[in-house]
Specification:
single chain; 476 residues; alpha+beta; Immunoglobulin-like; 2 domains; eight-stranded mixed sheet; five-stranded mixed sheet; 22 strands; globular; binds zinc ion
């Protein structure tokens, strides 16, 4: 998910082959988590969120009324866990009430990013479970870049306010029907999201200046009120600024909107061009995208980060744009676009199998260059991958890599090497057909490595023992 830059790094004479990602080598290793079996079937239950949010832009507060409808929740699930990321910040989350069906919930535990409570007794034939929450959130200030912490999209800066993972959400159930929530990581991503339908009503107060609102879905707007809908997505993100300039285009039936700060018009024009090319290519290579709009937001923090229908690209990459495709602005724009397919449409457990979406998104950078800039393919291998001399197994959990660099080198860079070798072995045509089948079969689900491999069962070379031994710690 993340690709950090350090824009404060002075440009040096070998900038073309020098690392621009933040080098964080001194992180202590995080505790290891036991591997939980992943659900590989469709979610057993169906989810929808109806959220009414009143944002006070100057106070950085949001008052939220949220209804969560859960259909077909297995009757033996007697406890509900909601993920509340805002509670990880000081005074970040103030719960006012929980009502399940008609029953007020008085007893609950709220710790870290989890809100947990017992469900009232239900009968098997009962209507969908309706959970109503009232709560307030206080947005944190986005901290300046640091070697100690990973970049933080959630919160506000002087010119940007980002609502990401800002509402209470229902995690997936694992095979044992336990709610799947991982420990927040030092680096990498750990949240796992089942698909849901979203209706978000946003009202903005507390600001005299006109504000521009970027979001995961398109809006019906009445003055300072926005009504968004997004079907069958995992996340709903919003980014607001008084300063955004917006460029718009369309590719493969997908509306692409690019939001950038005023001094970034030229790189933003490049972003919208790269994004349109990537959206057209991925539609052809992977299959059609399930939603019709993707917004790209210039991040006022040094990171790229994907959400459904909206992704951030680090301002550092805009600043380093030199008018050519040879830089991270193009690569991360097309990388995060690829996550609309490999994260958004096909979900995965970002904590336990981070290679699955990161590898496919990084490999998509190469596929993009092969299609549009074939003479830059050698540059990509040298600049993006081989420069770092990546080592390590690709299939570890985020908690098992000793540093951000070890994690990035393995799950992004080695995974791209692996996918390249796999495609060489089965040949491009078959690889493309298999990945299209993978998308069709796994869209809306939370996929896993086992299912990925199973897609190749009829391909020559299966089970690819040598290849697996080279890149994977776990071989069957
Ligand atoms: Zn990524």
């Amino acid at each position: 998910m993340t690709e950090s830059t350090d824009a404060s790094q002075p440009e040096n004479p070998i900038i073309k082959i020098s690392p621009t990602a933040t080098e964080v080598e001194t992180l202590a290793s995080a505790p290891t988590e036991a591997v939980t079996p992943m659900p590989d079937g469709p979610s057993e239950y169906h989810l929808s969120y109806a959220i009414t949010a009143r944002l006070d832009y100057s106070r950085k507060t949001v008052e939220i009324e949220q209804a969560i409808t859960i259909s077909s929740l297995p009757i033996d699930v007697q406890t509900l866990v909601l993920v509340v990321e805002p509670n990880r910040y000081p005074d970040g989350f103030t719960l006012k009430s929980i009502v399940v069906d008609q029953a007020p919930i008085e007893e609950f535990t709220l710790a870290g990013n989890q809100l947990q409570f017992e469900l009232p007794e239900r009968s098997p034939s009962e209507a969908p479970l309706l959970v109503r929450l009232e709560y307030g959130i206080l947005l944190p200030e986005i901290p300046p870049p640091s070697e100690m912490y990973k970049p933080q999209p959630y919160g506000y800066t002087e010119r940007q306010l980002n609502l990401v993972d800002w509402y209470a959400f229902v995690p997936p159930l694992d095979d044992q029907r336990q709610w799947l929530v991982h420990t927040p990581p030092i680096f990498g991503e750990s949240l796992v999201y089942p698909v849901a339908d979203f209706t978000v009503n946003l009202e903005i107060a507390g600001n005299d200046l006109p504000l521009t609102v970027a979001a995961s879905g398109s809006a019906v707007r009445t003055e300072n009120r926005y009504q968004f809908t997004l079907q069958q997505a995992r996340t709903f993100a919003i980014s607001i600024s008084p300063d955004y300039e917006v460029l718009e285009t369309e590719a493969a039936g997908i509306k692409i909107k690019a939001y950038a700060f005023p001094n970034s018009r030229i790189p933003n024009q490049a972003v919208v061009g790269y994004a349109a090319q990537a959206a057209a290519l991925y539609t052809e290579l992977f299959g059609p995208l399930s939603y019709q709009q993707v917004s790209i937001v210039q991040a006022d923090f040094l990171d790229g980060m994907e959400f459904d229908g909206l992704y951030f690209v680090s301002k550092g990459f805009y600043d380093l744009y030199d008018g050519t495709v040879n830089g991270y602005l193009s690569l991360i724009t097309v990388h995060e676009m690829a996550h609309q397919w490999w994260f958004g449409m096909v979900g995965s457990d970002q904590a336990l199998e981070p290679w699955l979406d990161e590898g496919l998104a990084t490999f998509a950078e190469l596929q993009y260059l092969e299609a549009y800039f074939p003479d830059q393919v050698d540059w990509w291998w040298a600049y993006r991958v081989n420069f770092y001399q990546p080592v390590g197994y690709i299939d570890l959990a985020i908690y098992d890599y000793p540093s951000y660099i070890a994690y990035r080198n393995a799950t992004y860079l080695r995974s791209a090497q692996f996918l390249f070798e796999l495609r060489e072995q089965v040949e491009v045509e078959m690889y493309t057909a298999i990945m299209q089948r993978y998308l069709q079969q796994e869209q809306l689900k939370i996929s896993n490595a086992e299912t990925f491999w199973a897609m190749f069962a009829d391909a020559p070379g299966y089970p690819f023992s040598e290849l697996r031994a080279k890149y994977f710690k776990q071989i069957p």
